[in-house]
Amino acid sequence: MYKAVLGLGLWILGSVLLPPTLEAKPVKEWQTTAEATNYKETSRYADTVAYAQRLADASELVDLQFFGTTPEGRKMAVLIASKDQAFTPEAARATGKEILWIQAGIHSGEIEGKDAGLALLRDMVITKEYQALLDHAIVIFIPVFSVDGHERFTPYNRINQNGPAQTGWRTTAQNFNLNRDFLKADSPEMQAWLTLFHAWLPDLVVDSHNTNGADYQYDLTYGLELSERIDPGLVAWQQKAFVETIFPAVTQRGHKLAPYVVLRDEYNLSKGFNYYFSSPRFSTGYGAVQNRPTILVETHMLKDYKNRVTATYDLLLELVRYVNQTPGTLRQAVMAADQKTIALGQKFDPARKFLLDLKLTEKNIPFKFLGVAYTRELSPISGFWWVKYDATKPQTFTIPYYNEVVVSKTLTPPLAYIIPVQWTEVIDRLKFHGIRFQTLTESMTIPVDTYRFEQVSWQPKPFEGHHQIKDLKIIPVERTMTYLPGSVLVPLDQRGAQVAIHLLEPDSPDSLLRWGFFDAIFEPKEYAEAYVMEKMARQMLAADPKLKTEFETKLDQDPAFRQSADDRLEFFYQRTPFYDDRLNIYPVGRLQQMP
Q1: Which end of the chain is less enclosed by CB atoms within 10 A, N or C?
Q2: Could you tell me the strand order of the sheet in which 98-103 lies?
Q3: Distance between first and last Cα of the chain
Q4: What Å distances lie between residue 5 and 136, 224, 486, CA to CA?
């Protein structure tokens, strides 16, 4: 059990607050669109790429590359900043410097990170005010992740947001929310992202967002994975880096910071808020199972755009500054976590428990919340509470913060998985995630552990392009199965082992089975005609007294069964050798020893 205590107090400052960094105006020809319009506007994608190209043309320390094409045909841009001109993953790793990955516009209406990141790179390589920050770090910057969504550009995309005048849309052209797609990787954008990510394998990820929700004084909230989902060494690094150093430095810049605000009741602040943790479908959860610290940056939607861009800029600045002041410590932490993951997968341990899911307890601590005055009244419009905030009246409330996270679901992982050749979409996902596997060149018939499923139900409405499995009963079984050439063997003695487990274990909340990649195994394709089964059932009853007793007991105890002719005949069909022995059987095998 781990108790998350991130950001539970205010930092005591020993000096006068420093001005926000972006108060100094850049050279006019190098102003971003946001700066040139006094933060009333943000650039379109073509202008963003043009600005990025200007940076690359003007400085030998920056390279503009493209790493994918969106469904609407736009190239996805990434900037690499390196004092050593280490513009390939191989060259970057050869420098020994930490690689920092900053991305903006995963929800491209929330675009502060784009303008903040472009300005910071400019101040590193053009004005050179912060060029020293590249002494011990290489920066990878994706100005807009959801490019097609960015170009769905109107004044009406962010009803809850205070500027800029026009922004992009939350999802892609195919209506995927990219921050739900990290594990299942449906979208071409995410597939391109994963390919780039696993080529570079950065040491830390920054994912820039903007909130929805309540009004309060904080201009920047954050999410960090500090639960048992992430390696303890990385928890310690984040505690020292963010909580003890970076967040106080950003506070000194005049910003107010707090953990990401997840209200328990959006109509009643007094009920408190929850610590934010996430499954691997989200950026922070995915970073955790990749052994990479990932910070979710959430500026406050009701602050003006200049405030939000400046808060993001100052956080990025202090983050890169910290990495430069502590060279090697981040890399050591992630490498140690990787080595631990590899070592755990080198032998099967029946006593090992792998964390699949977490939950919050009802334990809480008092939190001094910097809010604003608000009233509640019953609305004749909605028939429910109407919360009215008054941002001109800041108030401090003491409210409960529910911050204890405990493990709710575990399993014993195998030594390896084996996936039949025909499940091509699943094998493709392994490739996108950089998971190492061996491809069989000959058929192999072996005993494996796997699962049989009962009582399967699906969500009635689609979510992210899938009708997810809502509930199912998972029954471990042992079977002898044949795997043809082209099937793949996935050993867990690799740094991506945690990702493989979450993809392939059905009980993981984001498993490919729960997302619907194996739905075909639940569909019976052959059936018995009633006139055939009637005759065969009589023969079976005459030959097997135990079956006769079982049938009569079920008739007596199950009224629904008794009243259904189809179910009664199905009872016998399932007990014939004609019944599909693969129905409801998971085709992925779990191995306790290598074949």
Answers
A1: N
A2: 62-69, 75-81, 137-142, 98-103, 204-210, 294-299, 220-224, 257-259
A3: 36
A4: 30, 11, 48
pLDDT digits (tens, 9 = 90+) for 552-595: 999 999 999 999 999 999 999 999 999 999 999 999 999 999 98
Can you tell me the distance from the alpha carbon of 112 to that of 174, in angstroms, rounded to the nearest whole number? 23
**Count helices and strands in the chain by DSSP H and E runs:** 18, 21
- Burial class from Cβ neighbours inside 10 Å (0-12, 13-18, 19+) for residue 381 reads exposed
Whether the pLDDT of residue 2 is over 60: the answer is no
39, two tokens:
């933060």
CB 466 within 8 A of CB 419: no
Residue 285 to residue 9: CA distance in whole angstroms: 24
Can you tell me the distance from the alpha carbon of 317 to that of 137, in angstroms, rounded to the nearest whole number?
12
Q: Quick check: helix, strand or coil at residue 286? A: helix
Amino acid at residue number 288: A
Structure tokens at 147: 């490019």
Look up residue 257 and give its amino acid: L
Contact 429, 453 (CB under 8 A): no
Residues whose CB falls within 8 Å of the CB of residue 62, separated by 6 or more in sequence, listed in order:
55, 56, 79, 80, 81, 121, 125
- How many residues are present in the chain? 595
Phi/psi of residue 337, nearest 5 degrees: -65, -40
